[in-house]
What does this fold into?
Amino acid sequence: MEEEVSSSILSNEKGKKVILLGNEAIVRGALESGIGFASTYPGTPASEVGDTFSAIAKKVGIYFEYSTNEKVALEAAMGASFSGVRSIVSMKQFGVNVAADSLMPFAYVGPNAGTVIIVADDPGCWSSAQSEQDTRYYAKMAHIPMLEPSDPQECKDFVKFAFDLSEKFKIPVFLRTTTRVSHERGVVRLDNLMYGKTKGFFQKDMKKFNIIPPNTMRMHEELLEKMEKIRQISERTRMNYIVNENVKSKLGIITSGVSFNYVMEALIDLNIKLPILKLSLTYPLPEEKIKKFMKKFKSVLVVEELEPILEEEILALAKNVNPSLRVYGKKNDFLPKVGEYDEEIVISALMRITGRELGISFATHLKKYRKVKIPRRFAVMCPGCPHRATFWAAKIAAGKNTIFGGDIGCYVLGIFPPYYIQDFVFSMGASEGVIHGIEKVTDQKVIAFIGDSTFFHAGIPGLINTVFNKSKPLIIVMDNRTTAMTGHQPHPGVGKTGMSERSKEIKIEKIVKACEVKHVKVVDPYKVNKMIKTIRKFLEKDEVSVIVAKRECRLLTMRRKSRADEKIYKYEINQNKCKRCGTCLFFFACPAVYEKDGVFYIDKNLCTGCGVCKQVCPHKAIRKVKKK
It folds into this structure.
């Protein structure tokens, strides 16, 4: 599949039509724009942008990297652009928070070569548990233009437009997707590849690159002037256009991004036509075009996911051009303020406004659809996941009154039954900071869990803070040798770059020791008893202590063994010894274990041969069998 995607993305046949993900189409757009530098910190729903660059970078002669975090990724892209090389950086919405400290002054300074910032929002929190953050606010706050594609073709085309806009006005440009746009597959018509500069030269310019007063105020004024010129482009561009412009109606619709698709589907199902203003260059808005559109109607429906940003702008503009205009949207509860939209949500709003009923055939189909019951289940860690073994050991060693700090990664699944082992989860690196505060004002035992990639991303400052301010948490770094949750991307601890080149392996335990932590131990979580003893011992320390629970993600191990044609030793339950206590299924909760007619079995297709179940079975009823 990867070869097929690479072949499609790298084709130089102008006019050829290929099927791409939205994220893959973004990469193609960058290649048609002559980029020389790409960077990212992996985060779903944007992960495939970086992964695709990683797969093709050497083939097209560009540089790509997985950076240690989004701030560094942005800064690296800035450096490339300052040196005259077009750059692109991608991240999920929370990554913009991390990058914001450099993002704001970057808008003032501006790139030399074009720079495009890809950000993927996640309405409905499909892969972003912490919040439904709406990154459109950053565009307004930073005075950075924003484009919002609705499908893969627009993803490709808008990236090209963004680079040209960025380079013309010396300003970074946001391209904002959402989960559905990033992961939508669609037909994309290709243009020719463009081979741009991959090597540049940094020309010193004290006035441009030193953003201190009085330069700051001058740059701010220049930025506002740029945005006004770009607003004029927003008025003229074909990206902001009207569908069904000649249809006579008292109701119009204003929408953007993926919501445009839901609107179009809803109108088809209701068998009606309404004028639609589709906005794609959403910051700065084409105010005059919007005013002209609003004058025609008695009411408009504003369809957008997440915050009512567009709706508030429409309400403000309507006061002067059409004071009696009725604006339907989130503010008056015609559309939800929370969650991802779909066709049915838009249909419901239109039915309330127009009094239109669904056709009989579609209504019958919808009724049947609603009756479908999808079985509910909790997300679980994979069979053989080393984090499961770590959590098992921690629960036994620490006791009920211990506070467990959670972080962002696969191990966030520890919040679900039967472990319930993360008492809070906020953001990357927060486990250490929050647990430090708890330890300072309580007498409770505290443990912070943090993953290896997260440790490099945001965990080192928190660790230093515990040492500097003399708190005594136990920090368990869960090192599964990869950035597993977003697709097994490399990080600084694995000795491999995004270009698949060998690099220095930065050992977490050495960083910890360099931070003056005295009590540091690397433990294999598959050695359950050793892990339990180490946790108990370190919990009694009067200063911060760190356990690096090091064991490769079992999925990677299984793939490697399979490719090398190595034997994989599975496990089975000895029914003569099994007491049906349920420890393996209900308490250890390995997905490979199942129950049938009151008897417990291990599914040989799911078993990864980790052997931890054998160690936790109180009746020694699990044994190894040799089977490929």
User: Anything to note?
Assistant: The chain has four domains: 2-236, 241-370, 386-553, 567-626. DSSP finds 23 helices and 23 strands in the chain. The chain has a mean pLDDT of 94.
